[in-house]
Input
Amino acid sequence: MKTKIVDALAKFAKSMVQPLMYVSVVGIVMLIGIVLTNQNLVQALPFLGWGPLPFIGQVIYTCLMFIINNLSILFCVGIAGAIAKSSRQHACLIAIMVYFIFLNANNITLSSTGRLAEMTALGLTGTGQATVFGIQVLDMGVFGGIILGCLTGWIFNKYSGKQFGGFLQMFSGTRFPFLIMTLLAMVLGWGATYVWPYVQAVISALTGFIANSGNFGLFLYGVLNKLLLPFGLHHLVYTPFMFSEIGGTLQLGDQLLQGAYAVRTGELAAGLPLSDASYWMSFTFINLFGYIGVALAFYKTAFKENKAKVRATLIPLTFTVIVASITEPFDFLFCFAAPLLFVVLSVISGLSMVALKLLNLPVATSGGIISAILGNLVGSYAVPHWYLMFVVGAVVIVVTYFSFVFLIKKFNLKTPGREAVDAEGDTAAIADKAPAAEAKKEPVAAASGDVPVATIIEGLGGKDNILSVDNCFTRLRVSLKDASLLKDDVINTTGCSGIVKKGNDIQIIYGMQVGAVKKAVEETLGL
Output
């Protein structure tokens, strides 16, 4: 039972990655719009008010803020497409239609039962309802889209191959799950009006608990976001805070912004003081500084004859973490081989978030060091001493370095450069691998470039053993019929930095080139 629950959570977290991949891009581009429309910056830098710049800034901000305000449908479609094992375009189309059916069923139920809230001077704030695509419904935030996306993907996989004869033939194939989801969306739209108010009460209580738990809640948030990352479950921790009312709310004109991401963006655009919602966006602070300490500790404790090799490995990985905030390739160097160190790093992550709060530094650090600097420069009107985060970062580097060096030597931990690591079982296999250039030559699909597709498929047990292929930021995620057919030694010649095994679900760490790897494998398999 425990394994099934963990597997289900892992699959759910995997599906969440798809829409979140685009949200990070939205945030970076939106910074341009914020810079060009922020009145405090325009006053300080008058050239920002020149000619068409304000108009361009308003277009960028308004267009991308529309996406942020409608993340529910993004999650609905993205999750459905991620869960679907085949014909994903049909699953996505069904998800869109189901989403609008759900909204209308919800609205009609509220209207016919006399529960449709009246607009006030503050809009629908405090009523538990909201307007979504012009339809007044019960305010479920992103959760409505997440629920519908999961159901659509599951129903699609289960019934999209169903065939009927006679006059029922029109409901065969992908039309049958659409029929089921149409009826189900109507029922859910009706039922949500009676059930969700209780969920809203629970969410409100949870928000109150976190607010009242103060620094401990922030500490726990930071620890779990790092500790659960190797298992792909960290999305379950930060997503509610980023995109739902748990992370804070802000009334901006006739818009009610929910979630730390939207709240901070709205505050920056309006030149408002930054609220505590910003602290939920600092869970990646450890990425900007902590991994420098980790890299220095690994180099310091590596055996003399291995230092050159360790240095060559750590420099690009550390650069990737700092610039892009992508930590998986680095994490899998030690999270399973020396789990004590990863726990310590997670604790330091939580403590660093508390330090930021105690020093009144509501900084956002997602997206890497460049994004963090630009984002906090925009907010410097509210936090003029934001640069002190580098002082906190320096302390984090020192604490991480000395604690890691002490623990590695005290317990003779097998970190990079101390001995070859080749973990077996439900762990990441981080064995020394032949460079990609030395791997045996294999024919690959025409569009796959230098990706050793044939070798990857062979290592996964062949075409017939592969059920589905997906990816997140750095990992190729594959579902196999029989995990015993996996050939670690073959996979390790393809340029990966680790393998994670969870039953029949396999994750192979390829880093930032994983998108090209997935595309090449899918083209070869004909998925």
Notes: The chain is about 55% helix and 5% strand.
